[in-house]
Design a protein that fits this description.
Distance between the termini: 17 Å
Low-confidence stretches: none
Number of strands: 7
CATH class: Alpha Beta
CATH topology: Maf protein
Radius of gyration: 17 Å
Strand content: 25-35%
CATH architecture: Alpha-Beta Complex
Order of helices and strands: EHEHEEHEEHEH
Subcellular location: Cytoplasm
Mean pLDDT: 91
Largest sheet: 7 strands, mixed
GO biological process, one term: nucleotide metabolic process
Site (Important for substrate specificity): 15, 73, 158
Enzyme class: hydrolase
Catalytic activity: N(7)-methyl-GTP + H2O = N(7)-methyl-GMP + diphosphate + H(+)
Structural class: alpha/beta
């Protein structure tokens, strides 16, 4: 595959855009047209992987000869799946629920080669222990980090959300932000994209 294959990030997240920019390879970021709703009886990893794949597939017809990167993240805590709260009220509820708890963040990655209809997929699990949070801390955090409503579990770890966390266990520290960069590099190399 030629090294000038067009690379598309199927995301409007500025955090994932910044993560991909760190690899210093040219790409375009395009908002995917895909409904991010979990299905009944789906596990958190299944939801994350389906959404990541769906985002990439939603752009395939627009880019018939490209590599499309799709990603999504779902949080899991106390037998409940948590996505993006989208409102401050729901974010407050989620953070109360997560306070002092162990949370699993499932970060899914898909790389779709549209010309060959080849799909690479990966799920990265990050174990996080949250600090015990007061109402005042939650309200202050959401005031200072309004973008947290667009993060799984309202935990925006790349900002002040790091203060909510007691410890992290992960094979890829990038995954908690939303893009498992280590595995992405493997997939891009497999598709002929030489980064170094």
């Amino acid at each position: 595959m030629p090294s000038d294959k067009k690379l598309i990030l199927a995301s409007s997240s500025r955090f994932r855009l910044q993560q991909l920019q760190q690899l210093r390879i040219p790409f375009d970021a395009v908002k995917p047209n895909f409904e991010e709703t979990p299905l009944p009886a789906e596990t958190a990893p299944q939801t994350a992987l389906r959404l990541a794949s769906g985002k990439a597939q939603s752009l395939a017809c627009l880019y018939p000869d490209a590599l499309i990167i799709g990603c999504d993240q779902v949080a899991w805590c106390r037998e409940q799946q948590l996505g993006k709260p989208l409102t401050v009220a729901k974010a407050q509820q989620m953070l109360h629920y997560l306070s002092g708890q162990e949370v699993r963040f499932y970060s899914a990655l898909t790389v779709l080669n549209t010309a060959e209809n080849r799909l690479h997929q990966h799920i990265d699990e990050t174990r996080v222990v949250m600090r015990t949070l007061t109402d005042a801390q939650i309200n202050c955090y959401l005031t200072l980090e309004p973008d947290a409503v667009h993060c799984a579990g309202a935990a925006k770890s790349e900002g002040l959300g790091a203060l909510l966390i007691e410890c992290i266990e992960s094979s890829d520290p990038n995954a908690l932000i939303g893009l498992p960069v280590f595995r992405l590099v493997d997939f891009l190399l497999a598709e002929g994209i030489n980064i170094l």
